[in-house]
Structure formats: C-alpha cells, structure tokens
Design goal:
Layout (H helix, E strand, L loop, with lengths): L45 E5 L5 E7 L6 E16 L2 E16 L7 H7 L11 E13 L2 E10 L2 E14 L2 E11 L24 E13 L2
Antiparallel strand pairs: 1-3, 1-9, 2-3, 2-9, 3-4, 4-5, 5-6, 6-7, 7-8, 8-9
Pfam family, one: YceI
Organism: Sphingobacterium olei
Protein name: YceI family protein
Length: 220
Amino acid sequence: MNNKLSISYLLLFITPLIFSCREAVKDENENNVSASVLSLHVGDEKYLMINTEESVVTWKGSNLNGINTQTGYVYISKGELMIENRQLMGGAVEVDMNTIEDKNHGSDNKLVNHLKDADFFNVKKFPFSAISITRVTPVNGGNKKVTANLTIKGITHSVTFPIKIEVMDGTVKANAKLVIDRTKWDVRYKSAKFYDNLANQTMSDSIEFHIKIIAKNRIN
C-alpha cells in the first residue's frame, strides 16, 4: 500500500476509522444533513484539492478491555479544503470504504472481509463515507477545533475533533484525531449495548481515526 502512515478519519474515515478507546465518545450534536463531498464555488478563497496519494486515514479498534487491538488503513477518494488568509475555513472529504486494509495482512483477509460485511460497514450497500466541515474554531497557532458532519452507512451525525493545520505556499498539511461511538452509525457488532453475555468478546464501542491530509493545487 502507499504511504502507510500512522497519523493523528478525517477525514475522512475515515479515524480509522474500530479503536482502542475504552469509553464511548459523546458527539456534541446530531445532524441529518448529507455529508457528501462539497461542490466548492467561486470567491477570493483558495480551494485546494486533497492529494489522495499522500493522504491516508488510519483506524484502530479493540475489544472492551483494550487487550486485543486491530489497526489498519482506509483511503481518501477525493476531497477539497477551503483556505482563506492562510486559515482553514471549510472542506469536505470522501473515503472509499472498499479500500479498507489491515496493517499486518493487507486488504484480502478474514478481518477485512468481515469489516466490509453487514456486521460492520456494509460496504456493498454503502461504498463511501464522507465528512464535511461546518465550523472551524481557532485554539492556538495551527491548532483548531473542527465541527463536521460525518456520514457512515448513510447515517449523518455532527462530530467535533482537534486538528493541526500547517499552511505553506500552495500546500496544506492537516493531522487530526477523531473518536466516535460506532453504534450511532449502526455498527453494532458485539456491542454491550445490544448483546448480552459476550464476556471478553465484547468490542469497544469507540472507533478511532487518525487522519493525515495533504492538499495542493489551487482550483480555479
């Protein structure tokens, strides 16, 4: 695979993307607005296309006690960031769920096939996930707090997460960490919320995504 980098979903979604966190994470809001990739329009802002060869989402998941963890990758299919006065103002990312990989065994193995089936992400029916930024709040320096609409399995909720942005001439580097409660997106497999008597087979409801994005090339 290209650029198997450990990052700090988004993207996109992408994390990321079944993780070692032991507690379900609360989303600040819920919003059923579609999070498909934005069609960005005219103005004085710069719209930078995400370089899909250099960008990646790393996912991590675990059972409830955090002992058995799994890590892998999923890839961004397209996306754009909006930059104004060297500041992140918005953007959108689409993640191809068919590109899910396991860090140790690649894309063709029992684990990945299970992640693609209806127990998890039902990739045949929902081949893409997406995230669209709705608000960016400065924290300090290049550190921001992003609020965005995250869509997985056709379900959209609002999420808020930290992101670090580095803006250079013609290039933006972004690193983010996003942790979600998977059950809000109907990923219920071996969740203690929905299944009794799982004992040590119970999986954490938290999924963590580490998102690395490189965006380049002004769009006219």
